[in-house]
């Protein structure tokens, strides 16, 4: 396909219509068979070229895995893609892109960038070969999240999935990935808490061998007086923006909220937008742009969207 065309690849029409999708051959549970150095290098060359041509920032707010694309509606969350999975080496990939993940702030910063040592970071997963069976020991870009500062605490839960979190290789409930940025919620000894899916989520982050580095950036929090704000899986326009002949799309929130007192790292500010294309005849296609503005945020493992009118932007150090 040409870059100007829209491909159905991410399971979210809004994201498909506003992105360039690159498919990589392989299976996430068999990284050594598929994630070769040749693949990393050829992919990075292509992404670097496209980023320069289309002025796309080289960061994890703009270079998404399928596994970070949100479900557009509540009913789609369970069926979303989980690739490239925990074994894709994002740290190496961004080094090839010339944008390594570096510390950018002091020890008391309000934002962290996830950055474990890929080779040494070896969380246990199951289900690579058969359901419930342990996966082979392997380096990973993913860091596991707990409901308290210790591995004796339960894994954090993703209410959108409606099931208890597991260590399954395709279960994204309770993990973050290299390069993703989150607002710090707390620190205790070797453990750091971040705001994640509306809750505190803890990961082991010892000073001598950190799994995250301190960063700066902008965050959003609910405007004063709001107890919480809805989170969306797509940033669609308000109903009044649709012209005659183009059905207005529902703006339905996901089963998450962003509570007062919590902060989430911001990507872009975006107008509500919908690409109407029900056939291959380009003459019938329409781009609907509304007045409603949204922010893309790193809400959980996947990104989400909040209305700009519902939140205020706060520097990470404030």
TrEMBL record:
Give the highest taxon in the source lineage: Bacteria
Q: What class of enzyme is it?
A: hydrolase
Q: Does the keyword Cell wall biogenesis/degradation apply?
A: yes
Domain N-acetylmuramoyl-L-alanine amidase, by residue range, is 3-86
Give the EC number(s) under which this enzyme is classified: 3.5.1.28
- Catalysed reactions, as listed in the record: Hydrolyzes the link between N-acetylmuramoyl residues and L-amino acid residues in certain cell-wall glycopeptides
Keywords attached to this Swiss-Prot or TrEMBL record, sorted alphabetically, are:
Cell wall biogenesis/degradation, Hydrolase
The family database entries (CDD domains) matched by this protein are listed as:
PGRP
The terms under GO molecular function for this entry are: N-acetylmuramoyl-L-alanine amidase activity
Which residues span the membrane? none
**Single Gene Ontology BP annotation:** peptidoglycan catabolic process
Its name, as the record gives it, is N-acetylmuramoyl-L-alanine amidase
Identify the species of origin: Streptomyces viridochromogenes Tue57
